[in-house]
Amino acid sequence: MRFSVCLLLSLACSLRAANPVYVGVSYGLIKSTDAGANWSLVNIPLNSPFLSGTILPQWIAMDPQNASRIFFIGTAKAMAFFYSPDAGATWAVNPFVGLQARGLAVDFAGQTIYIPASTTAGGIAGLYKSTDAGVTWKRLTLPGTSPEPSGASVNNVFADPAISGTVYFRTANGNYFFKSTDFGATWTEIVQKTFRAPSYVDPHNRSIWYAVTGGSVNSALFKSTDGAATFTQVTIPSDEVTSVSVGAVSNTVYAAGNVAGLGGTVLKSNNGGDSWTALQNGMFGPYSGVVWADPVDATTVYVNDSLSNRDFYVSTDAGAHFNASVLPQGPPGCVPGNCARPTVTCLLIAAAVPVPPTITSVVNGASFKPGVPANSWVTIQGTGLAPQTDDWSHAIVAGALPTSLDGVSVSIGGKPAYVYFISPGQLNVLAPDVPTGPLSVTVTTAIGTSEAFATTANTYGPAFFTWPGNQVVATRQDYSFAAKSETFAGAITVAAKPGDVLVLWGTGFGPTQPSAPLGASVPASGGYSTATAPTVTINNLPATMYGAALAPGAAGLYQVAIQVPATLANGDWAIQAAIGGVTSPAGTILSVHQ
User: Model-level pTM greater than 0.85?
Assistant: First the structure.
């Protein structure tokens, strides 16, 4: 059913009643800012010659992490894609050209939008995506199935609310379920079971899924705790289950269904579906109830009948009582007495649900290559890694480097890393003294802990830090920059000369003698030379090596002192270091000019 798709998409993209509530009705999009006490019609100008009349919204969603970015698909004589970047104040409207959409999903980061669509009314639906807010659409290549070997047709699609790039679709016959982790480029089949109603992802825990099987009669509720790989039937005192929703706590689950002796009833579980309590009946028919539980505000629950014009209900006490919310009659300008009661088509409660951090890569902080050299700089990239941008300049106490910054901490191989820089998409940390071999990395914030990211610790991972143009960070003995002119706007820089003595700056040059201090800056007196002497080549010519050591007053930062070969001609020459049998990555240059 269309309404079931709306329910899935709204909830999967994270809802909240305390913020604006958008409801699609038979004559437009209405909005409430007070949990349904009052409603107003959203003004959406139809600035296309292909569109006219009232708008019938059909599917609605939002950027899961930006509640102001609203998307919906609706019909106003023709089908169109509607996008508001500012909570409904302004809208971009793009009519579909040659497509009949049948659903909507928005990626975690809000940059990729997916729709099942066909090229003709009633035709076989493929899967399309847009990366420009619905202006253009690209058809994705889908895997084949036994009944459709040339490519599956699509019933519904939904994006992971916590992981950008992860998207799912169910086939039109309901027997196949596929997952992609690369924005639909490749697909993996993860389950085969007939779920005729869409599955629903717990917005707090993406490993937990719920699904309704069968049609409106003899339907049942199933639950997965392993990311939809397997499902187990939930015992619930209802002959039919028509809707399911998770509240502000992952274990709080609401369902709508037909209960013997009561008829259409809202039920609630406080333990993830192990036991249920009937809350209230009579608000919808036995096979048509739809329930939305606010996943942020534990007090608010919405209920509607998907097959009739019955009242729309709201509870503000966690389901203890439900009161009718009177939706305005329409269409706009109708004569009182001749106006129609609105038919609800979809609903979105616009608020972002915070999600735990997700790690997408762990790399050397200078080379950006995989691997974690002990006691060296590491860059971690992902989503939701920190609540803000900050560094440790205010968090070093009595010389001790912080292992937590604004509530963000990192574990590498079970040991706390030293957190230097944080931002939502990137962390820079100093790795602890970890042994070589496989290890896992996790990031913890106030929201939760990421899934473990597997990587490898190495004794050596030499890499030079670079300036613009992949130039090695190099200074002279007076600390002036050795770089080609105009490397930095407004600063005078001079390229290295043959015979110059330079200090190269890098990380990953391994153990020192004596061992470097842990969790503190190197003393100003220095004296922590690398246990093994590195070598450096420039344009494959060996540079004279004067020594390599940790930089005094810093942490995890190595100084490598060399002399540029006197025979080098002018040019941008490849420069590499080697230590312990490991060579720094190619691509770094030193600019030399007489």
Answer: no
